[in-house]
Every structure is written in C-alpha cells, then in structure tokens.
From TrEMBL:
GO terms for cellular component: cell outer membrane. This is Lipid A acyltransferase PagP. The lineage of its organism: Bacteria, Pseudomonadati, Pseudomonadota, Gammaproteobacteria, Enterobacterales. Its main location: membrane. The keyword Signal applies. It comes from Buttiauxella brennerae ATCC 51605. Its EC number is 2.3.1.251. Homodimer. Transfers a fatty acid residue from the sn-1 position of a phospholipid to the N-linked hydroxyfatty acid chain on the proximal unit of lipid A or its precursors. It catalyses: a lipid IVA + a 1,2-diacyl-sn-glycero-3-phosphocholine = a lipid IVB + a 2-acyl-sn-glycero-3-phosphocholine; a lipid A + a 1,2-diacyl-sn-glycero-3-phosphocholine = a hepta-acyl lipid A + a 2-acyl-sn-glycero-3-phosphocholine; a lipid IIA + a 1,2-diacyl-sn-glycero-3-phosphocholine = a lipid IIB + a 2-acyl-sn-glycero-3-phosphocholine. Belongs to the lipid A palmitoyltransferase family. The active site is at 63, 106, 107.
Amino acid sequence: MALTNKILISILLSFSPMLGISSALAGQNSVLGDAWNSLSSNVSQTWNEPQHYDLYVPAITWHARFAYDKEKTDEYNERPWGIGFGQTRWDESGNWHGLYVMAFKDSFNKWEPIGGYGWEKIWRPLKDDNFHLGLGYTLGVTARDNWSYIPLPVVLPLASVGYGRATFQMTYIPGTYNNGNVYFAWLRFQF
C-alpha cells in the first residue's frame, strides 16, 4: 500500500473515536460497520481509480452577520486567497467522490491547510446534462494558527452547483456567537 494511501486511511481512522467506531465494530456486520466499510472502500477506490484531477480556488469566506459583533467582522478576512489540488471519481450512480488538499488564508489572514474526502449526491435537473447540483459531506483534517496548528478533524456539509467541468462548491461551518458560523466556498475545475 502506498505511503500516501496509508496517510489517508490514518486520517480517516482518526475519526473513529469521534464517530464511536471501534476497529472491532467496523469489522462486524452492523449498520455502522457497513457504513464504515463503504466509506473506506470509497476513499480507497477514489485514491486508486481517479477519473479526473481538480484545481481548487478558494472564492469567499463570509461570517454570518447575525452571529458576530460588527467589530469582529470588520477585522476578519473574507477573501481566502489560496489554492488546492484533488482527484475526482464519479460512481455508477453519477455521484461525486473527491480527495483534496487545499491551503487558504483564514479569517485572521493566516494560512490554513485542509485535506480530506468529499461525497455529493448529484442531480441533473435540466435536459442539459452539463448542469448539475450536489449535496453531501466532507470528512477531513485542518489546522489553524490560532490553535497552534494542531490537526483538527472536520465533518462538514457540502453543496454545489456546476456546469461541465466547473463547479462552485461550498460548506457552512456551524458555531456559537462570535465563533464559527462561516460560509466558505471555492471553485473546482476538473481537468
């Protein structure tokens, strides 16, 4: 098994305690074990059988004004300059699977890396098959300057709208007052 594949599996295994999955449970024939096996299989297949590679370009960070003091939002960076790279696999149902790494300027204008796996259920509501909508999730690991770059697991929702090889993908980071409650979006170009 390649070193990078081992690293990705290690990242996913770091979610085990948070999700309440023990290695014994993951091996049993249970709903949670089946979900874990499906996730592991999808990550492995996306790593080993990419159909496209992706360029990620962070586009916007927006702090929900209803959840922040104006003094804070006036100080925050909402232009997340950065770049990322990933690989995509489309499954037999037309759903998107992706592995990615990205680095961008966070709210404090400090570099924040993130990497992980994403999945979206894809709908093509128009006769034009190029237009697509997606809804799903991402599991990953990030690190922030204000937390001493300690690796932190993330589980976040994903949504997207795209046409052809260009997709506008987004997430929302929930939080409390003056913390979290951030809309983050990027462009994903498939090549």
